[in-house]
Every structure is written in C-alpha cells, then in structure tokens.
Amino acid sequence: MRIVAVRIGNKYGPETEGYLESKMPECKWHWIRQPIRPDIWLQWNKLAAMSIDTDECVVVCDIDIMLENDYKDLFYYPIKKGQFMAIPSWWGDAIHGEYLINGGFYKYYPKDCKYIFDEFMKNASHWQTYYIKEGITIGPINGEQYFVEDMVNQRLELITCPPSWVTRWSGDGIQWQFQATQKYKAATGNDYIYMGDEWHPDIKFIHFTQQNFSFTTIT
Fold first, then answer.
1. Alpha carbon of 80 to those of 51, 57, 121: distances in Å?
2. Ordered domains of the chain (ranges, CATH)
C-alpha cells in the first residue's frame, strides 16, 4: 500500500517523516515536499494523490498526528472500488453545514477520484478560497476537506471508520480537553479520551490542533 503525505515548508522537520515511516514500515511512503504547481497551497497538494496511475488503493494522511494502540486497523480498513473512506469529524470542523469528515486521513482508489483532481486543477484559484468566502471555514488557507467531501458525494460512496477510533486533541488547555471529551462521549459512549498518560484503547489516530502540535508531543 502507498501512503501519501505533504510536508511543505519548515514547520515540520524530517523527524516527523521518520516517525510516521517507522509506524508503517511495510508501506511505500510518498512525500510531497514541493507544491505540485506554484499556485497550489499547502494541504491542497494532497489532491495530487488522486492522479496516481495505479489500480491499488492509497492512503493520504496529515503529519500533525500520533498513532496509538492498534492503529494499523485504520490504515488497512477495507474499502471497495467506488468507495471513499475518511475519518469522521465528530468534533465538528465546519463553522456551519453538514460536513461529516476530517481531512487528516483518506483512503481511496485514485482512478475513482481522478475527476476530483481534474476539477480542482481547472479551478484551483476558485476552490482554494471558496469555503472561506462561504463562511464554512476560516483562512488564510483552508477548505480542502470540504471540497473533497462535496466532490466525493457526487459520484462515490463516502464511508468512515468508527468515531471512537479518532480524536482531535490539544496539548494544552483543560477547558478545550474537557469539551472535546464531552463530545467524544456523546459520539462514542466512551468515558474518556486521555487519562493518566494513556489514550483510550479504542483510539488509533490523534490529530492535533495546528497551534499545539510539535514533534516533541509524539516522541
């Protein structure tokens, strides 16, 4: 299985790549370290994986993450052609709207998604600002996951892993952590996310808020 991730700029160093590769050493990692075109911004470059010429499925994941417990169950989550798998955003990423997924983890067959890549590349300047202008998210760079969800729903079956497998997390802020835990309880029935230096055993994928993530968090 091929895993694609974007590390553009100096915010995260090569040690982040080393951490993730050590977690899935049996997979072929493909790192996007430069924009696929000068006008394509940061996380929007993840869409390049949809243009890979392969009949096998690929995983696309963010790098501000930590993998815990039996995390490989997420990477090897079974999908069929015509399906697009993502992690559920039970914490609610969109400011408004009925969006269901988080862009931190996708699994799909690239040939199923080529139409998404083509639409984006034809209208990149439009889509990279559309969801900010619509008030669905905030800038300066954002909206990729909402574009993906909208496009997937046109032709493919959108599926998600169990909500108990994933969480959004902040390294500081007791109030933030309390509110996240309450949402997790409501979504999963589990009593906690993180307790006594241990993650709930159901959790496999921790996606950190950008302002609170550093590699020291996951070593």
1. 18, 9, 26
2. 2-165 (3.90.550.10)
Distances (CA, A) of 40 to 5, 18, 43, 210: 15, 25, 9, 20
Cα–Cα distance between 174 and 180 in angstroms, integer? 10
Give residue-wise pLDDT tens across range 131-155. Answer: 999 999 999 999 999 999 999 999 9
Q: Which residues sit opposite 194 in a β-bridge?
A: 199
pLDDT band for 6, please (50, 70, 90 cuts). Answer: very high
Sign of CA dihedral 110, 205, 210, 97: positive
> Residue 196 is encoded by which pair of tokens?
């006594």
**Separation of alpha carbons 81 and 84, rounded Å:** 8
74 in helix, strand or coil? helix
- pTM for this model (two decimals): 0.94
165 in Cβ contact with 203 (< 8 Å): yes
* Buried residues in 141-163 as b, exposed as e (16+ CB within 10 A): ebbbbbbbbebbeeebeebbbeb
Dist CA 159 CA 42 (whole Å) = 25
Is the separation of the CB atoms in 100 and 88 below 8 Å? yes
- Provide the token pair at 136: 């669905």
Which of 176, 175, 180 is CA-nearest to residue 203?
180
Q: How many CB atoms lie within 10 A of CB 53?
A: 7
8 A C-beta contact, residue 46 and residue 128: no
Residue spans of beta strands (DSSP E) within 58-156: 58-61, 65-67, 83-88, 101-108
